Amino acid sequence: MTNSTEQPDIEARLDVLETEVATIREQLATSTQETRINSDTILSLSRTTADLLQIALSNERKVNQILQYLRDRNGGSSPPA
Fold first, then answer.
1. Which secondary structure element, helix H or strand E, spans residue 79, and what is its range?
2. Rounded CA gap, 4 and 6, in Å?
3. Are the beta carbons of 60 and 53 closer than 8 angstroms?
4. HSE (CB half, 13 Å, CA atoms) of 15?
5. pLDDT at position 3, please?
6. Residue 80 contacts by C-beta under 8 Å, 6 or more apart in sequence?
7. What predicted TM-score, i.e. pTM, was given to this entire model?
8. What's the pLDDT band for 75 if we cut at 50, 70, 90?
9. What is the Cα–Cα distance from 13 to 21, expressed in whole angstroms?
10. What is the dihedral of CA 58, 63, 69, 75, to 10 degrees?
11. Is residue 67 within 8 Å of 79, Cβ to Cβ?
């Protein structure tokens, strides 16, 4: 059993600890939300990058087809510069 002078001190410490725990929980919730937003952004950027790579590959195929057409039209030689 604690004496009467220690009881208010312990209660004051508990109040401080409860406040600190509440603050840490709020910070954790904010951090978790920010992490979720960052993850969503990274996923979106990854999808956009994949889409851009597909476009680049398609464009490369088209350029190669045009170059082949020009080579064939010029009798197999490279097109003039």
1. none
2. 6
3. no
4. 6
5. 63
6. 74
7. 0.58
8. confident
9. 12
10. -140
11. yes
